[in-house]
Design goal:
single chain, alpha+beta, 6-stranded mixed β-sheet, 3-stranded antiparallel β-sheet, 13% helix, disordered N terminus
Length: 198
């Protein structure tokens, strides 16, 4: 009986996690996201050919107000060898696996929620959406995070300078969310999917 209770507890805990296991920051609030007719659920495998366009992201908590929001999307499984040499791996933002780091795929701000609970904005992205294009056959974990955007929020210097605007820039590798979390707090909601190069 005790084993079944422990098993049920572990199942419930994992069912509540909306951000990838062993990642930071975390949240148990679900962020809705769809690619065409594919509804993203935590851990769902999606073919990289189905995520070429920016997703529709929507509120599932229904407790939103007239606040502004930011959405950030990361790849948590970039091979460190794509970014630097082996002797410098310890300088990288840790990814989910050994010898991996992160890559920023999308960072948009000034989002509001429309009457259909969809996050919309009319401003340029800090980092325009870049479709996942994993170059290796390993699984990559792509996570979305929703943050509050306080009224007087100031972008970190690199973001304000347009460093992430170029979709091919090396600056998007080794991306840390520490400055965002320090400035605005933990994510309000999250979601993630898995993909690879089939």
């Amino acid at each position: 009986m005790y084993k079944s209770i422990i098993g049920l507890s572990l199942f419930c805990a994992s069912a509540l996690a909306q951000s990838p296991a062993h990642s930071w920051p975390t949240t148990n609030k679900h962020l809705g996201a769809t690619y065409d007719k594919i509804i993203v659920t935590p851990g769902l495998w999606i073919n990289s050919s189905d995520v070429t366009s920016q997703p529709v992201v929507y509120d599932t908590t229904h407790d939103s107000d007239d606040s502004l929001y930011m959405i950030v999307m990361l790849d948590w499984n970039i091979p460190a060898s794509d970014v630097t040499t082996a002797d410098l791996y310890n300088t990288l933002v840790p990814g989910l696996e050994v010898n991996t780091t992160t890559r920023l795929h999308w960072w948009g701000g000034n989002f509001t929620i429309n009457s259909k609970n969809v996050f919309v904005n009319e401003s340029d992205s800090v980092a325009p959406y870049t479709a996942p294009r994993p170059r290796d056959s390993t699984e990559h974990t792509y996570a979305f995070y929703l943050f509050n955007q306080p009224k007087h929020y100031k972008l970190p210097a690199a973001a304000a300078d347009g460093t992430y605007y170029d979709q091919t820039t090396d600056a998007r590798f080794n991306f840390s969310m520490v400055p965002i979390v320090k400035a605005v707090g933990n994510p309000l909601a999250a979601n993630y999917f898995i993909s690879n190069n089939p």
